[in-house]
Design brief:
- The complex is a heterodimer of chains A (562) and B (440).
- With 562 residues, chain A is of the alpha/beta class.
- Among the domains of chain A are: 154 residues, Succinate dehydrogenase/fumarate reductase flavoprotein, catalytic domain (Flavocytochrome C3, Chain A, domain 1); 210 residues, FAD/NAD(P)-binding domain (3-Layer(bba) Sandwich).
- In chain A, strand 11 and strand 12 form a beta hairpin.
- Chain B has three domains: 248 residues, NADH-ubiquinone oxidoreductase 51kDa subunit (Rossmann fold); 89 residues, Ubiquitin-like (UB roll) (Roll), CATH 3.10.20; 87 residues, NADH-ubiquinone oxidoreductase 51kDa subunit, iron-sulphur binding domain (de novo design (two linked rop proteins)).
- In chain B, the strands form three sheets. A five-stranded mixed β-sheet of chain B has the order 8-7-11-9-10. A four-stranded parallel β-sheet of chain B has the order 5-4-3-6, sandwiched between helices.
- Chain B is globular, with a radius of gyration of 22 Å.
- Classes of the chains: A alpha/beta (562), B alpha/beta (440).
């Protein structure tokens, strides 16, 4: 791979400029095929066991999906049993929305989260949330944009449900206390997302997700939902007919397993960024290790689109220790250009994310990027090296000074988080452009759900990033925050409804499905060495990283990451 | 590994692919159908003698010599039901009723052999029942089938229709004077309905409460008539035994054992399923050769033989030949031939708690000791299994094991105690580990 122009030289030649011409070339699908990491077919394998046997899947994801469970029946000896109506696994936006709705419907709800409530990708979402609330906008247009951005490969009924619920979701969020940017008349302000036909993204500064999580967290704490922190689910439980009947939750605080017998289970565990697919850096939070996919898959839920991921175009590329940190698409939608080392624009910045990301990868691959490394590279987090992935030191400019030139003061007012990020990098984004490179951002595939967020396993509901089919091949900005609330709420309602109609609940709770899965693995001659779900990234070091005593002890006892 | 030998031994007779034709009368007749019955019609009296010499056992779990039951029925004078009492009377052959209940109530955890026989070889079964009827002078045959096994009821229903439309009923009537009536009767679906006397109650249309014994079913069965109850597997053996003779049957078994047995292998093995093997096949061979060994390379921890109502076998007994006498010699019982294999990865307390909960839910509730005994055992076990039990709870369990056996009309309470007692004997350390840790 060509290295590109060294950072210092490129920076010396960089001049802030209010207007630059739009590049005339249109590359279309060919650009994706050549440069988008999803199209690296050698990174794909076919699954051999489980409900999706025969489907293509990313190699790293296939390893954990077809891994052995972390627990055995003997590990559960003496484990206490807790009974509840609804168990929500995951404490992000979707999990909280689901728990709130289920609790509102009168169900007893336990919310178990791997880290702390709100420690999730929801707080990482910066750009905003889409909803067709403008006068000249319609859900139909929103739907068409979503389908187009998804390259048509989505579950249309889910997308339709999402766009139809969107205005109601905004109303609900405002009722919960969420703030949005308002204009001088008190109307909701909107901006355009990449790949959309109308300004439709509602936002609050550049930390919309954080604001959303703030109100959801407060709402959860003000309800009678029982919240279990530091309690990752390590396995689902099934009843005698193979329906989902709860989960085994590992309590990291007191180093034991708890069997939660639930009438319905909602998985809202989010994505897989921390698996660092294709050795990409990630914008995801620490817990995004794809646990929910593994649990659901073993329990027999069908998944889809396991080879399709979203790489966000603007992840920080330099300095290396912050590589992958997200810079909101809002900056581009406010008019910031993407410039290569020669100071030229090379793509329409508001094209869908996959095109923009592929274009950045192309610029770097063809030597027009800015190179900030020492030429040595660094060993990647996932252990291997992939063509196309960088060592986190090559990138292109995100031309933030230009928007400041056009609208002085805009960065301070609308992108405070970017300013803060700038201080961490030692630059002032008003004067000096940050160096960016695509970052592993979102898992487009996941569990197949219906409009009520029910998976293919009775009793198991999925909501949020763990689901597939809502965004197809490519997600639009602002649709993920919408997705988690729409399907989170629907999952909560449906789960509570199922719990009410269930009589005395599941008769017996077992991990029988695990035995069948292991049998399949052995018959297919699969190695059983790999344990999943991962729970924490391989590089997690609880002895130094965590401020939490219990995590250190459990790690030392080999309870996690063994 | 003696691969070739084991494959040759597998599914020789009852589950022979040629037998597994479903409800297809012509296919069964085209194979060996009718040969056994024809032979039995020639000399009905010899059939019981053959069963005796061949040492045919009750394969539903008891291992009771089949000829003994048959003999009791065959020697039964006719009874007439007169009001409340019974009266010995001279009734002509045509008038007297004797019942055969073919027990397919199969509901024991880990047992799933009869459903294969009923679904895949119904004619083999009907012919076996008919031969038995001919030998014992029985004129009413009831196929008593668990209603959850819908496919079996459907297959048996069709097979019975085909059988009735064939030439055989008239041929039997002509030879022996017996007008045999067949009937497929779905049972209540309760576990207890598989008990002999409970089955009789159920056939009479009542709730399957087991009766006190004596009188035995051979004296006083369905509506007071002499009644024979045999397991589906036992009856399926009969056509082949009569057709091929005693010598052939005795040679099928290994050692002193005779015939074949259908073993139901389940649990932590790679290939669970039904395997018809020579009676007396070592457990080792079943688990490792036919079952493909244990899952995930784990070590064997225990085997629940004959479903959960028997004692546990531990790895040192893995070489036991699986026939009634050899297994009994290791303080266990062959039972229905169910072998539930558990590996090192399984918690015994939870497993036993699961089984005892099954018994507690299955107790018919007529004997107080069983009703409350199973309930308390399951309560205590669940408490210990979830880490909430104290030393006193464990002591109570041990006490219950001493006082409960034999306190019920049927064997349900004995079975429940047997598995618990045996698990306490072998795995006391696990129970102790699961107890609530008291600080300090």
């Amino acid at each position: 791979m060509a290295k590109g122009i060294p950072y210092n030289i490129a920076l010396k030649h960089y001049r802030a400029q209010a207007e630059r011409p739009m590049p005339q070339t249109d590359f279309g699908e060919e650009l994706l095929r050549q440069y988008h990491p999803d199209y690296l077919r050698e990174r794909c394998v076919d699954l051999t066991v489980g409900p999706n046997a025969g489907d293509p899947c990313h190699r790293q994801l296939a390893e954990v999906l077809q891994g052995d469970a972390r627990i055995d029946e003997a590990d559960l000896a003496g484990s206490p049993e807790v009974e509840t109506d609804v168990l929500v696994i995951g404490g992000g936006g979707a999990g909280c929305a689901a728990a709130l709705e289920a609790s509102l419907a009168g169900a007893k709800v336990i919310l178990a989260t791997k880290l702390r409530l709100g420690d999730s990708n929801t707080v990482m979402a910066e750009g905003g949330i889409q909803a067709s609330v403008e006068k000249d906008d319609t859900p139909q247009q929103h739907y068409e944009d979503t389908v187009k951005g998804a390259h048509g490969e989505l579950d249309r009924s889910l997308a339709a449900q999402m766009v139809m619920d969107a205005p109601e979701v905004i109303r609900w969020l405002i009722q919960q206390g969420m703030q949005f940017e308002l204009d001088q008349y008190g109307d909701l302000m909107t901006r355009r997302a990449g790949g959309t036909s109308a300004p439709r993204v509602l936002y609050f500064r550049d930390y919309t997700g954080l604001e959303m999580m703030r109100v959801l967290r407060e709402a959860v704490f003000n309800s009678n939902i029982e919240v279990w922190d530091y309690s990752p689910a390590v396995e689902l439980l099934s009843d005698e007919s193979g329906h989902c009947a709860g989960a085994v939750v590992s309590s990291l605080k007191d180093y034991k397993y708890i069997l939660v017998k639930a009438r319905s289970v909602i998985i809202a565990t989010g994505g897989i960024g921390r698996m660092h697919l294709n050795d990409f850096p990630t914008s995801n939070h620490f817990g995004a290790t794809g646990d929910g996919l593994v649990l659901a898959y073993r329990a027999g839920a069908r998944l889809r689109d396991l080879d399709i991921f979203q790489y966000h175009p603007s992840g920080l590329a330099y300095p290396p220790h912050l590589a992958g940190t997200l810079i909101t698409e809002g900056v581009r939608s406010a008019g910031a250009y993407l410039l290569n080392a020669a100071g030229e624009r090379f793509i329409d910045e508001l094209k869908p994310r996959d095109y923009v990301a592929a274009a950045i990868i192309r610029e770097c691959a063809e030597g027009r990027g800015v190179y900030a490394g020492d030429g040595q590279g660094r060993p990647s987090v996932a252990g291997g090296r992939t063509p196309g992935a960088t060592d986190g030191k090559c990138g292109v400019w995100l031309d933030t000074p230009s928007i400041e030139l056009r609208q002085p003061g805009i960065i301070e007012k609308r992108f405070p988080k970017l300013l803060h990020l700038g201080t961490k990098c030692g630059i002032d984004p008003r004067k000096q452009p940050p160096l960016i490179y695509p970052t592993l951002h979102y898992q487009n595939g996941g569990a197949i759900i219906d409009r009520e967020a029910a998976s293919t396993v009775p009793g198991l509901f999925c909501a949020g990033e763990v689901c597939g089919g809502v965004h197809g091949r490519n997600r639009l900005m602002g649709n993920s925050l919408l997705d988690i609330i729409v399907f989170g709420r629907r999952a909560g309602q449906a789960a509570a409804k199922r719990a009410h109609g269930f009589g005395r609940g599941p008769k017996k709770i077992t991990i029988e499905h695990l035995r069948n899965f292991r049998r399949e693995l052995m018959l297919a001659n699969m190695p059983l060495a790999r344990k999943s779900p991962l729970l924490f990234p391989a590089y997690a070091k609880f002895d130094v990283d965590s401020d939490y005593d219990g995590l250190r002890k459990t790690a030392a006892a080999g309870f996690i990451n063994d | 590994m003696t691969k070739a030998k084991t494959t040759a031994n597998l599914n020789q007779v009852l589950l022979n692919p040629a037998c597994r034709v479903g409800a297809d009368f012509d296919a069964w007749m085209g194979y060996v159908g009718g040969q056994g019955l024809e032979k039995a019609l020639e000399d009905p009296a010899a059939v019981i003698q053959m069963a005796k010499e061949a040492d045919l056992r009750g394969l539903g779990g008891s291992g009771f010599p089949t000829w003994f039951k048959w003999n009791a029925i065959a020697n039964q004078d006719a009874y007439r039901d007169v009001g409340e009492g019974r009266e010995r009377g001279a009734v002509s052959l045509a008038e007297r009723d004797k019942y055969l209940i073919c027990n397919g109530n199969e509901d024991e955890p880990g047992t799933f052999k009869d459903r294969v026989l009923m679904k895949e070889c119904p004619h083999q079964l009907i012919e076996g029942a008919t031969i038995t009827a001919v030998a014992c002078g029985i004129n009413k045959i009831v196929f008593y089938i668990n209603p959850h096994l819908t496919a079996c009821i459907e297959a048996m229903g069709r097979a019975v229709e085909q059988w009735q439309a064939s030439r055989w009923p008239s041929r039997v009537a002509e030879k022996t004077g017996l007008k045999i009536e067949y009937c497929v009767k779905p049972s209540s679906g309760h576990y207890i309905g598989g008990e002999e006397t409970a089955a009789i109650e159920s056939v009479e249309g009542k709730f399957p409460f087991p009766r006190g014994k004596p009188p035995y079913p051979s004296d006083f069965g369905v509506h007071g008539y002499p009644t024979l109850i045999n397991n589906m597997e036992t009856l399926s053996n009969v056509p082949h035994l009569v057709r091929n003779g005693v010598e052939w049957f005795r040679n099928l078994g290994i050692g002193n054992a005779t015939g074949t047995k259908i073993y139901c292998l389940s649990g932590d093995v790679l290939r669970p399923g039904v395997f018809e093997l020579p009676m007396g096949t070592p457990l080792n061979e079943l688990v490792n050769n036919h079952g493909g060994g244990l899952l995930v390379g784990k070590k064997l921890k225990a085997v629940f033989t004959g479903g959960p109502s028997n004692t546990i076998l531990t790895p040192k007994d893995i070489d036991v030949p699986m026939d009634f006498e050899s297994v009994a010699a290791r303080r266990s019982a062959l039972g229905t031939g169910a072998m539930i294999v558990v590996s090192q990865g399984t918690g015994i307390v939870k497993k036993v708690a699961e089984y005892i909960s099954f018994f507690a839910a299955s107790s018919c509730g007529q004997c107080p000791s069983c009703k409350t005994g199973t309930y308390y055992m399951s309560l205590l076990l669940n408490r210990i299994g979830t880490g909430q039990g104290t030393r006193a709870d464990l002591d109570s369990l041990i006490n219950l094991c001493k006082i409960l056996p034999g306190s019920g009309r049927c064997h349900l309470i004995n079975g429940a105690v047997k598995v618990l007692d045996s698990s306490l004997y072998h795995f006391m350390n696990e129970y102790e580990q699961s107890l609530l840790k008291v600080e300090g």
